[in-house]
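Sequence design from tokenized structure. All designs in this work follow the same two-part layout: the structure record, then the generated sequence. An example of the structure record is given first.
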């Protein structure tokens, strides 16, 4: 008997009919001889509804109280799903984070899981109960409710699977696997039967919505088999593997896109290394990730910096840096919210020297300018005007992923 952890996202449980369908999936897995722990998100649209209610009260609601509010969505789903399974004659129980013992740090809105106590889970499974866990949430050391950020239910599922030493973690979504790019943008996108952990990590970090970045990181930590499936149709999905990559395959595995970008430009900073180090420390202490960092207009004693942050962090970044303007010494802070990031991902891109030229050629054929570009062993990313994002995705996918199968 294997232990399987299954995660069901918001669209998978978006209505009573969908919750009934998920109950059937879980019971079928159990009837195949497996123990099942299911982790659920709020019903589709519910988290946004709750956030909107909060903003009707306060345009900048308390982050602690916002976490208290939005976790109610997962509680509703978990209890309804448990009811559906019980009605079918199978014992089930819904549990919240504090009932399990999911402990996090105190970064409200983007907390990290620090530990999980599996005693209660093991106890329930010993009684042959199907356990339904409310995802996306935890408790800090002071007992405050915390949330793991958008997509955090993926992370709950993977961390639980790792702590329980599960045979596999299955992420059920509204797509039947990981695609070469978002099929809603490029209809010719192809489902991948498998993808390496390193490639999936890059894709998640660069905007691919199919898996939460921290969930991929956690799967790598446990070397946990991770599979992406659809709750709407039967397929083998996509398996994230830890096998050595095939270095003879086409260099590009996927194209990722992200609209959740804001370009921050700081003008006329003193050209002193400790100044910018202090700036990055301020952002790091607030748990804010900086990407696509670049120096602009380098002068003898002054320098401009540009970097991107996630759109969710934009207001906090402006607030923090404005508060520190005197000590940091910059003259002006500018924000551009009409930008997006497109990336190509693959193993060993740097050894394929033609890829960067083909990347720029594909963009130039569509008259798309790149404002910032970053490269690494596994990616090429360009920041561009948001209105050209979908055009860029299709151009790059055609260049690298359609031609490779012709």
């Amino acid at each position: 008997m294997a232990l399987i952890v299954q995660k069901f996202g918001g669209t998978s449980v978006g209505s009573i009919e969908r919750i009934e369908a998920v109950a059937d999936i879980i019971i079928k897995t159990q009837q195949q001889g497996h123990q099942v722990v299911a982790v659920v998100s709020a019903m589709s649209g519910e988290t946004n509804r709750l956030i909107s209610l909060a903003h009707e009260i306060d345009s900048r609601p308390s982050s602690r109280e916002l976490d208290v509010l939005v976790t109610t969505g997962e509680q509703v789903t978990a209890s309804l799903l448990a009811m559906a399974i019980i009605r079918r004659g199978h014992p089930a129980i819904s549990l919240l984070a504090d009932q399990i013992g999911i402990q996090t740090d105190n970064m409200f809105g983007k907390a990290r899981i620090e530990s999980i106590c599996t005693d209660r889970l093991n106890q329930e499974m010993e009684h042959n109960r199907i356990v339904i866990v409310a995802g996306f949430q935890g408790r800090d050391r002071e007992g405050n409710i915390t949330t793991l950020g958008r997509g955090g239910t993926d992370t709950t599922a993977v961390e639980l699977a790792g702590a329980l030493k599960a045979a596999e973690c299955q992420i059920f979504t509204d797509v039947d696997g990981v695609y070469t790019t978002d099929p809603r943008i490029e209809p010719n996108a192809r489902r991948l039967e498998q993808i390496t952990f390193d490639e999936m990590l890059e894709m998640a970090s660069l905007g691919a919505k199919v898996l939460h970045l921290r969930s991929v990181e956690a799967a790598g930590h446990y070397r946990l088999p991770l599979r992406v499936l659809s709750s709407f149709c039967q397929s083998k999905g996509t398996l994230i593997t830890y096998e050595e990559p095939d270095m003879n395959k086409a260099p590009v595995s996927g194209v990722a896109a992200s609209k959740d970008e804001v370009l921050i430009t700081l003008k006329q900073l003193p050209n002193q290394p400790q100044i910018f180090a202090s700036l990055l420390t301020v952002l790091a202490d607030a748990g804010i990730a900086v990407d696509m960092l670049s120096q602009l207009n380098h002068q003898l004693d002054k320098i401009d910096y540009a970097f991107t942050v996630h759109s969710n962090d934009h207001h906090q970044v402006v607030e923090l840096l404005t508060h520190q303007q005197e000590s940091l010494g910059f003259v002006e802070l500018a924000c551009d919210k009409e930008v997006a990031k497109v990336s190509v991902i693959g193993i060993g891109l740097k050894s394929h020297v033609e890829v960067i030229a083909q990347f720029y050629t594909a963009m130039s054929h569509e008259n798309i300018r790149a404002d910032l570009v970053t490269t690494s062993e596994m990616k090429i990313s360009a920041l561009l005007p948001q209105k050209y994002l979908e055009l860029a995705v299709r151009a790059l996918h055609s260049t690298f992923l359609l031609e490779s199968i012709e």
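The CA atoms of residues 26 and 36 lie 7 Å apart. We note this feature because it recurs in several other targets discussed in the main text.
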